[in-house]
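User: Predict the structure for this protein chain, please.
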Amino acid sequence: MKLNQLIQFFQDIAPAYLQEDYDNAGLITGHPDMEIKGVVVCLDCIEEVINEAIDLGCNVVVAHHPIVFRGLKRLNGNNYIERTIIKAIKNDIAIFAIHTNLDNVFISGVNTKIAEKLGLKDIRILAPKGNLTYKEQTVGAGMIGYLDKELETSVFMSYLKSRMNLEIIRHTAWCKEKISTVAVCGGSGGFLLNHAKNQGADIFITADYKYHEFFDADGDIVIADIGHFESEKFTIELLYDLIINNFSTFASHCTKNVTNPIKYF
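Assistant: Here is the predicted structure, written as structure tokens:
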């Protein structure tokens, strides 16, 4: 099976035009006509993942985050981006990224997966992109939904930690005694805080909050920063399931590399 068939499959789920302007989703290395020998799915396609693909006899890496965000002026192997690209090209390995376009869709989207992990019901896009729809589904950032029953905030935080397999949660003061309405955004979602507030969310779960930004909760909502990798790691499971449930002509693997650059002591 040729790579362009897999690319078209993902384009049908989350078209490239739905990605944000700053993004670089799509085929980064490789040629669409190459035959797929095997696929490794990951969050971050770094050099260790390319080594893993080589060891497994795979020639395609499907990643959430693009390894190249901006134009490269040289390829000398002086940093992890250059080394990864050089190794991929030398070993005829294609790198395909499906990033903010996958964030922005409802069906099979990144935030839908988080909502599923948290058992939220009646979910909807938190910040729709105007009247833009794709295949009759709303398109936009974040997700909001409801718990089956409201939980005391301390109980919900323990539930969040367990369901998302977290080591730590950075959060604001518990200004809500109980949690019922939950807003989420995988990755850097601080720009959605007012959307979460305006729609009555008790808690907003996201990542990459800076110190002063926590003050923006302003006693109206609980902000829970669970970490960028931690908020999106189940995207690997999402992409893997999409592949194995629709293709049987090649082997697929979830990376065994934990690519989170942040460690906890």
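The chain is about 30% helix and 30% strand.
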